Amino acid sequence: MELDWGDGDYALIAAALAPTAEALVDAAEVAAGQEVADIACGNGNVALAAAARGAAATGVDASARLVEQARRRAAAAGVAARFLQGDAGSLPLPDGAFDAAVSAFGVIFAPDPPTALAEMVRVTRPGGVVALTSWASEGPICEAGGALRDALPADGGDGPAPRWDDAAWVAAQLERAGARDVRTGTARLAFTAESPGAWLDEQVANHPAWRWGRRQLGAAAWALVRARMLAALEGGNEDQAAFLATSVYLVTVARR
Questions:
Q1: Which of 193, 205, 204, 252 is nearest to 229 (CA)?
Q2: What is the model's pTM?
Q3: pLDDT band at 157 (very low <50, low <70, confident <90, very high)
Q4: The CATH number of the domain where 125 resides is what?
């Protein structure tokens, strides 16, 4: 069964990720009057952040449901943003049309990373910016996600898995795609909830990837995996009166 990013209530997940959209727009130096493409845009976090700064934003996502949510958000905000349904590996956008092509935790889930990155470069004008965020492999949330991934059957993909947590690997992929002057920084995002269990249950109820993972496992296997995930979250909890976990992510910026 293929993962459907329109499954669940992604609005809750997007709200938690909103600070990363602002960080990405800052890193890409988005300014008024620019044309910005938000690739694998979800419900529009980055596109809306760019549009709020006076840019004309175009978001592309494979999920019709998320594209519709993004359109409603743009209409409510009254900003210059349009949204199209399309695949990151074959963007419905013209060559060299954008001052910046950006992706916040979106293109990293593309099944063919080299092609998706090449598409981002293709739609960016010469001298324009290509920028993306990806999760680092540290912290309790990363550990919890790893427990779920380890319990799932191998996806059967050809070749080694993408290493989006490795700055050198990401830079090499961008350079092969035709980008240059790649630089990577790190940032942090805090996740909070009433307790580790409350945070986990909210993710499993609403996050499309976690919902998909649970559906792949039987009840007994899921119970074991949930126990491992909860132990990871409890072990890395930074607020013993509730739940606080800080996740590190990479912000990679390049030029076409």
A1: 204
A2: 0.94
A3: low
A4: 3.40.50.150
